[in-house]
Amino acid sequence: xxxxxxxxxxxxxxxxxxxxxxxxxxPELRRTTRDEPDYDKLMKYRIxxxxxHGLGLPQIRETIAKIDPLxxxxxxxxxxxxxxxxxxxxDTFEQFAMPLMAKLGYPTLLCNTLEVAESxxxxxxxxxxxxxxxxxxxxxxxxxxxxxxxxxxxxxxxxIVASRAGFLFRTTQQLKLDYSQxxxxxxxxxxxxxxxxxxxx
Length: 201
Description:
Blueprint: E1 2-6, H1 16-24, H2 39-53, H3 57-64, H4 73-83, E2 85-93, H5 94-103, E3 109-116, E4 122-126, H6 132-142, E5 146-151, H7 157-162, E6 165-169, H8 173-178, E7 184-185, H9 188-199
Parallel strand pairs: 1-2, 1-5, 2-3, 5-6, 6-7
Antiparallel strand pairs: 3-4
Helix pairs in contact: 3-5
């Protein structure tokens, strides 16, 4: 029994922090998990910048409301879900992701949550569990699933390495070099065919 685990940002939807960086005119917020492997360090950096500029969840949600899935993402996801179980595993936050889930047809999403003051200031965050993507993949394997994983960033490598099959998708040249043993794809058609090749679909 196969289950495919997909990253969200950069794979199915644009990077939320990059979009907000452009909307707010704050270039420092372009930094993502493609650039910084240490997620705790990255989030503390982001929260510090938001505080410095007096920005919070309401302003970020205004940007998220204007974000649509990447071209072809909904069709890819619908096709894949018609053939097997699919989980979206993301280090994003419920407060960010739920409007995007509506645009993707409400796939199952496992992610984290923000700590937000009444004023809308983001004061912290809570991870669902440590190394959440890798931990989730191992949990699925422990209940009888073979996992297939795909993502684009440092924080996806754990689940890719641990899975029966793993694929990089629209990733950086550096990650392609560092993990050259894993196929790297640029289109949804390529990724769908690679998954089908594993499952025999």
